[in-house]
Amino acid sequence: MTSTVSRFTVALTAVAGLPAVAGGLNVGVELPRLEVAEYHRPYVAVWLERADGSVAANLSVWYEVKKRDAEGAKWLKDMRQWWRRSGRELSVPIDGVTQPTKPAGKHALSFSEGSNPLPKLEPGQYKLQIEAAREVGGRELVSIPFDWPAKQATSLTAQGKTELGEIKLELKP
Amino acid sequence: MFSATRIAAALALSCAAIGAQAHSVWMKPSSTVLSKADWVTVDAAVSNDMFFFNHRPLGLDKLVITAPDGSTVEPKNAHKGELRSVFDLKPEQAGTYQLAIVNSGVMGSYKDAAGQMKRLRGSAEEIAKQIPADAKDVRVAESISRIETFVTMGKPSPLRLSGKGLELVPVTHPNDLVVGEEATFAFHVDGKPAADVEVVLVPDGKRYRDAVNEIKLKTDAQGHIKVKFPTAGMYWLDADVNDDKTSNPIAKERRLAYVATLEVLP
């Protein structure tokens, strides 16, 4: 959680006259290509936390969905922070949240407020939390704090060090 | 360096004479947090250091595994080796499985007419019959010791308390411990909060460091201790209480011991 978050405002590109659309979040998750003898795709959890640490939304959980006998659920606990905050209260698979693991590279996720899995958020301080855990590998948690609602389109980034690469958060007012 | 409680716990297990060499007793599970029904294997031993097999195995005949619904689960593949005992467990229900070895008994000694120290063995009734009329320095003590560990599948569930002897009462659940967050535990004697109980926590891996790195705490008026674990890993917790609340008039003192293995995650 020592990752630095850089903030810059994106020029508003909305065309005047169009009706206001619901706000939302775009999240970019980079999984680094790792030179290791035994590589397994990481398990990744993307969620929003309120200032008190409670979970405001589970946005995305990537795990080995298709293994026989739900064997893939065995390693969900390795995303330790997520498991403790909400994973252990849930029953997987979760519609619109759980997805198969993904290969190394950049992945883009988009969420609209009020549409599964992103509910309407009370105004306040939040943290985007991204946790990755890899079998025979390490674990990393990257956080990006932000205020909601965003006054203007804002783009935030943070850099993971080991299991995660660049993390992007675009706030759409 | 060794607390009186370690001696009491070792005594209750070995039925050795008072003043026997101090050893620590423990059960160590291979994992404590599961996200799916899966095998857990547990080592149980009596040793000098946590958690190394350097003395002898811990007997499993008193082991009781309690499932979250209160039912009892039989251990699988129980085996007693020269240096450790082993058993397996597959938690199928969501919640916390409580693994406990509870020993209770009496032990004692007296000096006969010739001044020879004699040991008393058996139940309280048997011991009463063994003491000759001219015995001197009769010492009979009751003991209750509890050795525990916990394994949770899914969401942690409340523990079941016996209300007898010395017990840990979770304020913070023992399967919900992380570095950097303060945990609170209460200690009860016979179901009531116990103040001024000395509690010792020893982190795993003594063999690879010079110092024991014990954390010593004392319960407050509510029987609470608070601890912020400095490092992740397994911890051995030990607490002991001596009092005179014996259940049999022949015993003048009572020794209560509590031992638990806790896992702290990073």
Question: Can you walk me through this structure?
Answer:
- The complex is a heterodimer of chains A (173) and B (266).
- In chain A, 3% of the residues lie in helices and 42% in strands.
- Chain A has 173 residues and is mostly beta strands.
- Chain A has one domain (24-172): Sandwich (Immunoglobulin-like), CATH 2.60.40.
- Chain A has a five-stranded antiparallel β-sheet, with no helix packed on it. A five-stranded mixed β-sheet of chain A has the order 5-4-3-7-8.
- In chain A, β4 (55-62), α1 (80-85) and β5 form a beta-alpha-beta unit.
- Chain A is globular, with a radius of gyration of 16 Å.
- Mean pLDDT of chain A is 91; it is low at 11-19.
- With 266 residues, chain B is mainly beta.
- Helices cover 7% and strands 48% of the residues of chain B.
- Chain B has two helices and 20 strands.
- Chain B has helices at residues 4-14, 124-130; strands spanning 24-29, 33-34, 40-47, 56-57, 63-66, 72-73, 76-80, 85-89, 95-111, 117-120, 136-153, 166-170, 177-178, 182-189, 192-193, 198-203, 215-218, 224-228, 233-243, 253-265.
- In chain B, strands 2, 5, 6, 9, 10, 11, 13, 16, 17, 19 and 20 form an eleven-stranded mixed β-sheet that branches.
- In chain B, β14 (182-189) and β15 form a beta hairpin.
- The radius of gyration of chain B is 19 Å and the shape is globular.
- The interface between A and B is medium-sized, with 14 and 12 residues.
- Chain B: Keywords: Signal.
